[in-house]
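haha ok so turns out i had the wrong file open the whole time. this is the CORRECT one, sorry everyone. sequence first:
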Amino acid sequence: MYNFSALIDDGVAMDMEGKIEICSRLMIGNMEINDELDGNCIADFTGEQIENFRNLMIRNNKKIVLLNCSKPVTEQEYYKKILRKGHLLGVENINVMIGSNDKPDEAFVDGLKAVCKIGAAYGIRILLENSSRTFLSTDKAISQVYEKVRNQYSGLIYNPLEYARLKSHPFFHMFYNSRLKNDIRFLRVNDGLFLDGNPVLPAKGNAEIKELASILLARGFKGYFSFITYFKKTDFIIYVEVIENFKRLLMEM
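then structure:
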């Protein structure tokens, strides 16, 4: 059936055991995590910490499908360590960090190329995500960078709310004309309003989540429908409401 994944906010559960428990209650086995857990960066995990973490995932029948990184691609030592530790933990994809001050210059592209090369060596896909707060705010901007590093271990995270915050139609303006449709590995399940960018439940705003999910599935999408924190106040009930709302949309397609 469909692949669902979830990033559990620290405000809902702080430690990994708590995050696993929340995912189990949501009936989701595919987890997204940030690179810092229990006060420690995964890049700096000891062998014992890696083993304990790995065993915890196995016992609870969970896997890490996305690891969010917190340092720019120019910090190669960090990415060497995070990818090596990620490989030991069975991580499928990493989301590289793009800061608001980053620029698509030669240093950035060279850094991204190097990270993609390391990722390929470990069999971990390197992903870029659009954001209204960085230079990766439009499909055109993403294409200009992504096509320089594109390979079988690269991909994209499609975030419709970030396009809606720019008052751009995520489906009719961005997806429809994109040359990168086949590179989408995650679709963020979120929605918001053109008026003020405020978040709303899926299909209640202008992010065209129903259209995006429908067209991706029609194209044979095998990636993940990703549930993340996007409301200002997040609790367990918000996750339930968003997921159940999206499930209803899928059943209507």
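The first strand starts at residue 3 and ends at 7.
again sry for the mixup
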